[in-house]
Fold this sequence. Notes:
The complex is a heterodimer of chains A (206) and B (111). With 206 residues, chain A is mostly helical. Chain A has helices spanning 5-12, 19-104, 117-142, 147-169, 178-202.
Amino acid sequence: xxxxxxxxxxxxxxxxxxxxxFVSDLADWANVxxxxxxxxxxxxxxxxxxxxxxxxxAAQREKDREAKLEAERLHSVxxxxxxxxxxxxxxxxxKIRQYFDELYALQGQIKTPDLSEELKIDIINSVKNSTKSFxxxxxxxxxxxxxxxxxxxxxxxxxxxxxLTKAIDNDELKLSxxxxxxxxxxxxxxxxxxxxxxxxxxxxGE
Amino acid sequence: xxxxxxxxxxxxxPGAKVFTGRDxxxxxxxxxxxxxxEPNYDEILVKVPADIRSINPSFLxxxxxxxxxxxxxxxxxxxxxxENALRYNITRxxxxxxxxxxxxxxxxxxx
Lengths: 206, 111
């Protein structure tokens, strides 16, 4: 039996004599690997987090930019609507009524089935004068506010002027007949009146 | 001096004694080729048929759609001369058309 305790341990151990340092080295390497992996993972996590943060910041900046643009758009729409109310609607409401009243009053000039050449020209001139005066007031105030709204209104008024001019010009139509007058003159006036108010109150400042 | 004559009688709707409407103005502008002819002549005479009752501003705005902004008001009056109908005088309707066309053009530039 060995008397040296180290010899005794070595002789009773089933492992090779240098196994302890091998395991220790393996553990050390494992620790190094784990540390490296942990370090790598932390770098990856850090970088991934930074990438996500950047993406979130960019998305937030984009959202802020869009919100700012939307706020500016709404501000511009509100200003436009205020202008529209103050400059277009309120001053022109009496003129709209006056314009259509003048057109409805055309009937007073048509008393015989066959209108003379002079009377036809006079009635057409009445239509043109009323339209010119109303256009000057209404359309000219609309033009600086909305080009599209201006064109729709202008085309509507031009279209009515054209329909009435053609009806008065048409020698086949007996406008002194109430039914004919209603169909050829009053109906287009009524329709235009409704469409014009639809246009006026349908404007949303765009 | 080179003069070209546009006879509106050629473009009238059969039976009608009026020229009216934007669509008709566009049709006559294209059919008469006024935009192509205008730069080649010193003067253009527009003959209005004798029995015409009215030429509405909406028609004139479209008929002279390109010519008015190109020449300006004074240039237009220098180049375009009108032969009036018996009972109808085009002056007021023409002035209205020129004014509106130029107003629209200026507004477009401002936009």
